[in-house]
Design goal:
The structure is a single chain. Helices cover 12% and strands 53% of the residues. The protein is mainly beta. The protein folds into two domains: 30 residues, no CATH class; 139 residues, no CATH class. It has a nine-stranded antiparallel β-sheet, with no helix packed on it.
Length: 184
């Protein structure tokens, strides 16, 4: 039975059916999609998205005593419950291993990047939102979220995120280094 048929049937069978009709409609409404994540419910999810064309997920998880105090951050990549890469392996001093850059222009455009280095490889998570296209303000923003992998300073692979994306990279601002010389 279709949703509209169920609602009509419920409204016809119940005296004063309007309030019940609303309740039935809410119960039948599909839940809003949320991104898959490697972060547990007790961790802060700074960034999570599924990679286009794969079953892999990239997440930046962290923790702290409250929203104002971030104490650690960790990158996780791969399939849910079987990540291929977790960096760093320990929470202690992990904030020192990450760098970031944040920029916002009058609410029209914002960009946040977080990066880290492991040997010859560098990893850059970038999130851009723009309410301006070719100088014209738009109602629906354009969004781009990517993971870029570098080797010896050269980009070797870009992983695009598919919607929905959890983006809270701004929550790391002032907790990780903003030294641009470390940016890949």
């Amino acid at each position: 039975m279709r949703r509209s048929d169920l609602m009509r049937s419920a409204g016809n069978k119940l005296k004063g059916g309007a309030p019940w009709l609303v309740l039935v409609g809410l119960l039948l409404e599909p839940a809003a999609a949320s991104p898959l994540t490697h972060c547990s419910s007790t961790e802060t999810d700074f960034f999570s998205c599924s990679i286009v064309g794969s079953k892999k997920v990239v997440s930046l998880c962290g923790g702290g005593t409250d929203a104002e105090r971030v104490t650690w951050v960790q990158y996780r990549f791969g399939r849910i419950s079987a990540p291929e890469m977790i960096y760093p392996s320990k929470e202690a001093k992990s904030l020192e291993l990450f760098g970031g850059w944040y920029e916002s222009h009058s609410g029209h455009h914002s960009m946040a990047e977080v990066w880290f280095h492991v040997g010859a490889y560098s990893y850059l998570i970038a999130s851009t939102t723009s309410f301006e296209v070719e100088g014209v303000m738009v109602d629906e923003p354009s969004k781009e979220n990517d993971l870029v992998v570098f080797k010896d300073g050269r980009a070797i692979r870009t992983f695009n995120c598919e919607e929905p994306v959890n983006h809270n990279l701004w929550g790391l601002q002032d907790h990780i280094s903003d030294d641009q010389t470390r940016r890949p």
